[in-house]
Specification:
By secondary structure, this protein is an alpha+beta fold. The chain contains five helices and nine strands; from the N terminus they run βαββαββββααββα. Helix content is about 25%, strand content about 25%. It has a five-stranded antiparallel sheet. The protein has a four-stranded antiparallel sheet with strand order 5-8-6-7.
């Protein structure tokens, strides 16, 4: 079983596709497969039917964290995900798409009439790695801070969108965890990841 998905305020950074200077990990065909799966998962839920969630390739069977973000008429409509991988990426995309549509407590459950105008963006996370504060790269690294049972996460695009420097990024991630803004200097565990983000507009023919 997956742990409960985590809600995240619009982390997708639409238009961001890979860390600067790095080639995309997922091919155009893989992106299409995953985005179609996300749409199919939501539609299947409204129709009360199950999907076959057997990964179609070894790559999509890898355990990965992922966030799925929904937009309706270009406005945020839901976003949830898994920070830590607990199953295949293929299954995680289906699970988080359904959760974003029906379980994000910030929004009412999606209704079928909204589906034709629905846009989806996926943020696929790399494995977490420990890091020193001075080695964090704005625009490349997402950040997870943990201390005393509290945890806060911000995706790589967030500091770029807000114009934050490294210190502000660290402080804001501490606040996200419900910690003092200086907790990163007082023994909190710092881990980073990268995120490859793509959406429906990126695979449109």
């Amino acid at each position: 079983m997956f742990p409960p998905p985590e809600s995240e305020a619009d982390p997708s950074g639409r238009g961001f596709s890979a860390a600067p200077g790095h080639s995309p990990e997922f091919s155009p065909d893989e992106r299409r497969i995953l985005l179609k799966l996300a749409h199919d998962s939501i539609l299947a839920a409204t129709e009360g039917r199950e999907l076959d969630l057997t990964p179609p390739s070894p790559h999509l069977a890898e355990p990965r964290g992922v966030f799925t973000t929904l937009y309706h008429h270009h406005s945020l409509r839901g976003c949830v995900g898994y920070v830590l991988p607990t199953g295949s990426l293929f299954r995680a995309v289906a699970e988080t798409a359904r959760a974003a549509a029906f379980e994000d407590i910030r929004f009412p459950a999606l209704i079928r009439a909204e589906i034709p105008a629905l846009e989806i963006s996926l943020s696929i996370l790399s494995p977490l790695q420990p890091i020193r504060p001075e080695d964090i790269e704005i625009g490349r690294h997402g950040l997870l801070i943990r201390s005393g049972g509290r945890r806060g996460l911000l995706l790589p695009q967030v500091p770029q969108e807000h114009g934050w420097d490294r210190t502000t990024f660290l402080e804001q991630t501490c606040r996200k965890a419900g910690l003092p803004p200086t907790a990163w200097q007082a023994g909190a565990v710092l881990e980073v990841f990268t995120a490859e983000v793509f959406g429906d507009a990126d695979v449109a023919n």
